Amino acid sequence: MIITKAEFIVSNSDVNKCPSERIPEYAFIGRSNVGKSSLINMLANNKNLAKTSGRPGKTQLINHFKINNNWFLVDLPGYGYARVSKTTKKTFQKFITQYFEKRQQLVCAFVLVDIRHEPQKIDLEFMQWLGENAIPFAIIFTKADKLKPNAIERNIENYKNLLLETWEKFPLYFVTSSENKTGKEELLQYIDSINKSLR
Ligand code: GTP
Ligand code: MG
């Protein structure tokens, strides 16, 4: 699939005000600075679509982008932003939780994790929560350009082993880099296959 049209629709902090159109939507979630907004831009071939920043905490709202006139990509704020208190850090921002609980159009959540890091508690807890709420998700490893292939393999293996201690199956995953467009085709193909299955 090729993205020929990507347009910003609306930003908001209330899931009830999100677009009412019944078209499939895919949300990007993960720690602040993991590369959610950059990945959306990479997929859409537009560096200025979603706002990115070297400093964590850039995306603050639920942002809907309409793709090829018939599905949505959703950019969300990151969790685990270091400048908030411990209690706030533990509780995911309420409107993000509500987005996942209430948004019926959501067909798949992509949980982004930085491929360079050891599995983080907050990511594992979030995946656990998605599982408990029966929200389908896939893992996207980001910033693959920062590691050599054998280190990528090793880190994924490590992630797998850890997750398999609590999960029966390792979720579907993608290895990506917004810098050099790694994983773009695979990700778009996956989304396309879901879109087609829903038609
Ligand atoms: P918040 O909106 O704050 O939650 O962050 P985010 O997850 O949207 O991250 P964003 O896309 O703003 O990127 C954060 C930083 O990581 C920026 O400096 C990006 O340039 C950088 N970055 C994102 N993706 C990649 C990547 O694939 N490779 C490299 N090398 N840097 C990346
Ligand atoms: Mg962002």
TrEMBL record:
Gene Ontology terms for molecular function: GTP binding; metal ion binding
Listed InterPro entries: G_ENGB_dom, GTP-bd, GTP-bd_ribosome_bio_YsxC, P-loop_NTPase
Gene3D superfamilies linked: P-loop containing nucleotide triphosphate hydrolases (3.40.50.300)
Keywords: Cell cycle, Cell division, GTP-binding, Magnesium, Metal-binding, Nucleotide-binding, Septation
Needed co-factor(s): Mg(2+)
Pfam family, one: MMR_HSR1
Family matches, as CDD domains: YihA_EngB
Transmembrane segments: none
Domain EngB-type G: start-end pairs: 22-197
Top-rank taxon, per record: Bacteria
Annotated GO biological process: division septum assembly
Cited HAMAP family: GTPase_EngB
Entry function: Necessary for normal cell division and for the maintenance of normal septation.
Family listed: Belongs to the TRAFAC class TrmE-Era-EngA-EngB-Septin-like GTPase superfamily. EngB GTPase family.
Protein name: Probable GTP-binding protein EngB
Organism whose genome encodes this protein: Capnocytophaga cynodegmi
Gene name of the encoded protein: engB
